[in-house]
Amino acid sequence: MANLASTYQNQGRWKEAESLEVQVMETSKRVLGEEHPDTLTSMANLAHTWKSQARLGDALSLGRLRYGHARSGSS
């Protein structure tokens, strides 16, 4: 699903990319945990999509959350 979401991003199909990225992120959180590198990558992908849609507040909030998880996972 992440690859398809990336394809949608590249085509500018932001809503379709967002829908898949949310699914990937939620599944990754549930299965792997919030600090797993794959989960953090899915969060970054969704934040990028939101940024591309000019949803800067959402993108920034998710980016900060991702950064916090990445920092706590590296200690």
From TrEMBL:
TM region(s), chain numbering: none
Name of the protein: Kinesin light chain
